[in-house]
Write a structure and sequence with these properties.
This protein has 487 residues and is mainly alpha-helical. It has 20 helices and twelve strands.
Amino acid sequence: MDTESAFWTRVQALEEHLDRLDYTALSTMSDADKVTAMTRIRRLADRMTAGAAVVTDAADKANATDHTTGTPLPDFLAKTEGRTPSQGIGVVKRASKLAHHPGVRDAALAGDVPPDHATAIGEELGKLPQDQLSPEQVDRAAGLFLDRAATTPPGQLRKATKKILEEVAPEAAPSPGDEAARLAAQRNRAVKDRRLVWGSDGEGSTWFSGQLPDLEAQQLIGTLQAFGEKGRRAERDEAKALRDKRAEGHITDSQYVAARLELESREARSTAQRMADALVDMVGLLASVDKVPAAGGQTPRLVVTLNYQDLHDALEGKIAAGAVTGAAGEIPVDAGSLRRMCCEAGILPVVLGGESQVMDMGQERRLVTGAIRRALEVRDGGCIFPGCTVSADLCQAHHIIPWWLEGPTSLDNLCLVCRHHHALVEPDRYHSRDQWRIIVDSDTKIPRVLPPERLKKHLRKSAEDPNITRTDDPTQRENSARPTLVA
């Protein structure tokens, strides 16, 4: 059998064996056998990935898809595999790097080195001064990279290039002056290539993509991680505060359990979610201390163009809230988000003519003035949610009786809540769901938070527990029945 025939015969055999592989056998395997099966099949997958890269590189070097379909390989992959053109380019580039050196390629095909490692090694071998190295020196460098691959992540392999070059060809290694020049050139390229772009995914989210020079990126990453760690510390402090309050009798067992259950939902956030929240918190902090610079004569703002009655109807959920105009253009907004935005909003009255031309524009009136904000920070000290330790500067002023239901913008109708808990206490327009609520204590006039009624079946009843016996108090019963007291 000739080589090409053998190739196709074995490809067909692979396909047939994969078709016959019965994964229901996993249900009867011991845990040890499951681990063995996982390890072997993952290694087979790596070998197939390496094989796909080698074949892709061969097709690229031969311009095979151009000759057979009139389509460059990246576009061919985009069309036939549901990729974007840029993703197709990435596949071709990675394949070229993996197949760059025969020894590295064969190690990947044999499963001795994972595809990601082989790709990183091929990329670094391509950076070596080829005109100053003999084939034997390149092979030795490849071997040293492969030796490190067993215990080194792909990203760390890239940092070994300089040391490996000094070992295999010290005469070709850059001098201190050359290295300084290389770093300067690298920095210039990184500064030139910096970018940040974004766009809508059409499903209610905005995507971001970009890159920064290493120095600036580390500053941003460090700041995000600091905010993320602050969140973790706040969760630990909140858990301790809840325990202390329960031990000291300031909250009941049922209040403790209810708040602890809510806290667990935040503790379960992934690292990626925490970093996204950290970015939002950074921006919120800048805005709260008036550190956001003006652009076009005014600080960034969100603009909702509605007549006043439509605004009230949208806030009540009677009509769609419409679109909000911001830096990224017009985006749809739901009623709940619009209600939260309006808690500290500036209302700018605009008179429109018959063709919706702006005929007159009044002065912006902020719902929460600076003086009220400072008083709230003194009184509440931070988020009022039980156990929450988010500081006042990261909190939002919240109307207990919503202003769009004629609730006054006054100290006794406002409280501070963090961004997360603001969403948690945001009322359901139709009061169709049982949720966390804020009421004002009739004696102290201080707002406090009540858990959902549905939590009661999970909580131990106590005669001293106001959350369990609350409806026996006529004043509390009246307040809890009034939708305007829920915010």
